[in-house]
Design goal:
By secondary structure, the protein is an alpha+beta fold. The protein folds into 2 domains: about 55 residues; about 35 residues, no CATH class. Helices cover about 45% and strands about 30% of the residues. It has a 3-stranded antiparallel beta sheet, with no helix packed on it. A hairpin with a 2-residue loop joins strand 1 and strand 2. The radius of gyration is 29 Å and the shape is rod-shaped.
Length: about 100
Amino acid sequence: MTLQEINTRLVELRSQIDLPEVDLESIETEINNLLEEKRTLNDKAEKREALIQKALVEPQVIVEQYEERNSKIILTISERSSQKPQKTLSENKVFSL
């Protein structure tokens, strides 16, 4: 069951509580079961989010190449981020000495 389905069913059960022929014990049992299932789903969602956050690494600037040509230093720099690992930004920086 999804959270939306659980919430929908809880609303349905609330509307049945005031009916004279309702079995309150069965409604109570179902409500308790739905709330437990809702807690389980929320706990799993929180755990997933915590693991995602744990796996994220701050972008790193990495010097991939170092060359010295005619008194100039050329660095090839890449920025990598675990948020978008397929994207690599490369650029050359030239520094005069």
